[in-house]
Amino acid sequence: MKFLALPTLVMLLMSIQPVYSQCSLPAPTNLQSTMTAESALLKWKLSQSVAYYKVRYRKTGDAIWISSPQLNVSNYTISDLQPGTSYDLRVVPYCSNGQQGAYTFKLDTTIMPNIIILYLDDAPNGLTGATGAPDFVETPNIDLIAKNGMNFTNNSCLISLCAPSRAVMITGRAPARTGVKDNSTQQNFNLSLPTLSEQLQQAGIYTAVLGKFHDVFDAHNGTDWNYRYESVTTQGSATIKFSRNGGPAKKAGNDSVITKVLIDTAIALVHQTSQPLFLLLSLRDPHTPTKVPVPFDHYYDNETISFGVNTLPYSNLYPSFLYELPNKNYKDATQMTEILKNQYRAMAYLDSRIGDLLNALSTTGKLEHTLLLFTSDNGFMNDEHGLYGKRHPYHESVIAPLHIWYNEWFPSGTSELLTSSIDLYTTILRAAGITDSNSDGISIKDLYDGNVLRTMAYSSTGYTTEDNFQDMASSRTGWDADYKLIQYGCSQVTEAFFNLQNDPQELVNLINKPSLQSVIQEYRESLNDLAAHYGDTLPGTLLNCHLVDNNRNGQALNQHDALSIYPNPGNGRITVEGFENFLQVELRSVIGSHIEYLKESFDCSHLPDGLYLIHAISASGVPANVTFIKQE
Description:
Elements: E1 8-19, E2 32-36, E3 40-43, E4 52-59, E5 66-67, E6 75-78, E7 87-94, E8 103-111, E9 114-120, H1 140-148, E10 150-156, H2 162-171, H3 175-178, H4 196-202, E11 206-211, E12 225-234, E13 237-244, E14 247-253, H5 258-272, E15 277-282, E16 318-319, H6 333-363, E17 370-376, E18 381-382, E19 388-389, H7 395-398, E20 402-405, E21 413-420, H8 423-431, H9 444-449, E22 457-461, E23 475-479, E24 483-488, E25 495-499, H10 517-533, E26 547-548, E27 564-566, E28 573-577, E29 582-589, E30 594-597, E31 601-603, E32 610-618, E33 623-630
Parallel strand pairs: 9-15, 9-17, 10-21, 11-12, 11-15
Antiparallel strand pairs: 1-2, 1-8, 2-3, 3-6, 4-5, 4-7, 7-8, 10-20, 12-13, 13-14, 16-26, 17-20, 18-19, 22-23, 23-24, 24-25, 27-28, 28-31, 29-30, 29-32, 32-33
Helix pairs in contact: 5-6
């Protein structure tokens, strides 16, 4: 299908000193314009003292002007303009002697695309075809956005939590500056910060915000249209009630109606608006409870879900609070299978409705010049490392999908650039031709073009007593393509350091590895620099926690007692570093059963893929353990 578009152009008036000739006619006034991607309709106030008018235009930078015929009316349409091209235009009055009067208008036209953000809730990578879902999961419309646009695979959220992440996105400022540090501090939103919708509304764009935004849009929004919902529970039964532009809306129902109502409203706005449209569609999916209509409620009933070694809890070198959080942790295989199937069902239904929205954009001729952005407020731990939920600093929680379909900027493809949720504000303003000088983020367009450089990604979560999280320490984390450092807000130094090249699933904490200490220190310094940039002070509250280190077993390890193997994960020949320092080195299962004794170098290719323990006794009698992943 060929998609056609008719975006609206915005005319930016630039003041110029009047130019006079012997004809003393004043410059035309009340200039108005209606712009599309290929034409411009100009209107001005007709003056009885003017013999005729001419409209002149040229591509910005060209020397030659193109002139209209003599005009005895006060309007003129310029046709065959080239999309994405800037033009200078003048409306010039003439006296009866053929001499021109004054002109005071020079108009520089730039394309203003429609901007649509599909903003999901708790959607990690792995729920769509484009982000690595199982083969039986079908999300053709979301995958189309990723395929036709740019799929940014290293997109992080500055904070992995609902309300703070939304505040970051709509202001381009870090949580320390928005005032929203968790879901309980929404009322602290910094009203002095200009929001994305305010900036776009002032530029002449029709702004619509639909869906879930907590309280960060209530008092300070800048929207022409907003449509939100809340869940009202009566006697244990939840009803969804909608409000439109501050007043009640007639629609109501259970959780399953949210996606339908929001996307139906979005489609109506696409059909009804003629000026440039900014549509922020903040969806509930796939946040629990996931309820979908027939037949989606029985999708994937007969499918089998397999779980990898990354779903096993950490056995060593992890923060002591990690597996003591109430109701936040490990789900058994039966529970997790149904949770994942419900997420896949929610995404399947959402995908079908996104297809309806794409069709509306196509039939109205708006899709080709629409910046379409698909992302989520945060990721989510679906039992990775035995954890369930968000707020965690591991990749499944802090990485969110990002697809941008806007071929004026990006070709179709995949990018591993380090993008962030805080960049969306500046990126969207740039697409609208608005200069941003106050954001904590950067333009993804500039990042892609190589005009700016980001060498480390950053995410943090502050300490909170909200929602039974008082036993979870704050954290901040920084990473690049090679390594990742996590620092926890514990009373004792508690850190993790992962080799993302060898261990992308973050299974083996290398924080105590002697040969990496200088590298780790460099990452600490870089992390501190980023924390200062974002105004992030860690921590507000120190939790009484520490790094669980089973290698020590209550005894102090010296350098000769440290156990390390490489490569890890590995398949084939594995080397035990400092083998000569140990009396015995043993390969065990994760539950401690003996498998075999090891030599300095051993072949693991015969082992099934999975998680193992290497157990050793040093010459000084100190036991040591290290986790090993056998992986093809």
